[in-house]
Amino acid sequence: MRILSFFFPIFFSTIFSLVAEPVSISADTIVSLSENWTFTTNEITRPITVGKGLSSQGFLPPVHGYYETTFTFKPNKKPLGIYLDRVQEIDTLVVNGITLGQTGKILPDGSYFPNWYYKRLYYIPNVVLKENSQNQLKIEIHFRNQTFQGGIFRRIPVMGNYDKLQELILLEDGRDFCFIMLFFGIGAYQIFSILLKRQAKTNFYLLLSTLFFVMWRLPLLNISYTYTDLSFFFWLKLFFTSQSLLPVSIFLFSYSLFQNKLYLKERLLVIFLISIAFIQTWDIELPTRILLLRIWEFTLLLVVFFVLRAVIRAARAKKTEAYFLSVGFVCICIGATFDIIIDVTSGKNIYLTQYGFLILMILSGVAISYRNAKNESELSILTKDLEQRVRERTIELREKNQDLEQDLFFASQLQSYLLPKNHPKTEGIRIHTTYLPMRQVGGDLYDWVELDENRLILLIADVAGHGVPAAFVSSMVKVQFRESTKSIHSPKLILEHMNQALTSLVSRYFITACCALVDTKENTIIFSTAGHPNPILYNKIRKSFEFMNIKGPIIGWKESFTFTEWKHQIQKGDRYFFFTDGVTEARAENKLFGEGKILDLLEKGKNKDIKSLSQEIVVQITKYSDAELKDDVTFFFVDII
Is the Cβ–Cβ distance between 30 and 165 less than 8 Å? Predict the structure, then answer.
């Protein structure tokens, strides 16, 4: 009877899973596959719960087996896919006996290459599916790491429209990317504070904290694998190394802010954590890497102790900055505690620590600003006279206004750093650029990349809108342009890569651009445009300027857009004029400056050098606009010499 009572629940659950109705799947919707799963290993099949680790269900590593379920497919013309999130450690998708995808691999010599971070999204072609009948879904799993839960445990698999599942991943990556960009902004502000020598040492450690945080989060983005050829082990090293160094920078920041001296025990703690980070950069076995992680987690207790002690001492000394930081450190401690508990119990780390770290960064900036304000306020003398108080208030408001203007000036300086300073050294080319933002910062951008002594890639772009938002988007455009040209040298493919990368991030800000590849060795120039005003070419036969007739869709609307290219032969004496719409759309009494006036200026100045001609164009546009630009004005000349 005891034997029957032991086997009866297993037998009953197995029979139930076999007779349960298969879930109905269509590419019109997304369906959760939460039931009717079995797991087979060592020729033993048992019911299994997805969304829960293998270890917690009695399958201890090393494990090699497969999840299995069935579904009914309702056909239509839309693509079908399945999303498994991150699976540990190697998985292979098989539908109706046909292998459709794999993440991670085991080589014939036994070498083990898992992937913990990549989110699994597999496409299921209709040709392998049985329409309106039962289909078999099998997910083979290799799981060896004894410190993780293993298998399909982060979330319940979902199946349905492939495009919608892809949008889900892009949304998750976009959210994390925006979070990273926010920390980039915090880091940029710290750079300016360092240059201004405002708490330079403290700001430096805060800058390191933001950089380590960004490097810690990058491996968790799918775009890190999609747009780079770097291996999983590179991202694994980056993840654990940055994670190990992050508390070091926070620790040094807190001591620097409160001007505490580092004694021997604090120095040894810092050296120990840096040593762990250094070892994480080695090619070591995964169990050793996880062992170092556990040692690091224990060492965090010492870091928390020393940091809290510094905060408490500062609070006793009535340093107001301590109260700001105490809130931030408490948030980090709470987030880290929950992360560790959730990670150990279920493996579903939701990274609450990053939100605590964001709060700490904001409060740290507040604390530093408060320290500066406090140093200034100590120089002021309070009087009882009301008029004197009013004057002092006026002075304070002026100072704050100057700070705001200075911050905006810094923003314009930062944007100016995005524009190339030195002219290219490409043989046979002379370039002169002009950039006039409507406000202190703008959405226009030009850039170039020298491939070699004979080839030069040019870009001019215009972000819809003005001011800081457009300037922020233009910085993203530059980053994507530089990233694209590392491996792509075709103007058409560069614009396509930029469009795919930027569409999900800048949906509210459409971008026009024109990209050109000048090759003075082959005597060719190749154009590709994204809804941008056509460049103007000096026609040596007609001895006049004319617009080039090239077209293309804008960037930032749809990822599926493709672009075309036009090749043009160049010869000595050719002159090309690239510009944004701010040149032709300069206004005076609702009348546009227009293409005709630009052509007249170019025609009259065809024998002038491009620097003098550029100055003349700026003078005419400024006069026409009554010295008040209505849009950003950007243009540059390219002379073939």
Answer: yes
Is the pLDDT reported for residue 1 higher than 70? no
Q: Distance between CA atoms of 257 and 253, rounded to whole angstroms? A: 6
CA pair distance 460, 420, nearest whole angstrom = 12
- Amino acid sitting at position 254: S
How does pLDDT run across 399-438, given as a tens digit for each residue? 777 776 776 667 677 777 778 888 899 999 999 999 988 7
Nearest CA-CA partner of 353 in 342, 368, 338, 373: 338
Alpha-carbon distances of 515 from 456, 481, 550, rounded to whole Å? 11, 10, 12
The pTM of this model reads 0.47
Tell the residue number behind the tokens 């951008």, with chain if given: 445
- 256-301: per-residue pLDDT in tens? 877 778 888 999 999 999 999 999 999 888 788 888 988 988 888 8
Work out the burial of residue 178: count CB atoms within 10 Å of its CB; fewer than 13 is exposed, 13-18 middle, 19 or more buried: exposed
Strand partners, 105: 113
Distance, C-alpha 170 to centroid of its chain: 11
Helix H or strand E encompassing 535: none
β-bridge pairing 80-86 and 158-161: antiparallel
| pLDDT at 342 exceeding the cut of 80 | no
Alpha helices in 458-556 (DSSP H): 467-485, 491-502
- What does the alpha-carbon distance between residue 154 and residue 350 come to, in Å, rounded to a whole number? 10
Distances from the Cα of 493 to the Cαs of 22, 202, 327, 480, in angstroms? 44, 44, 48, 12
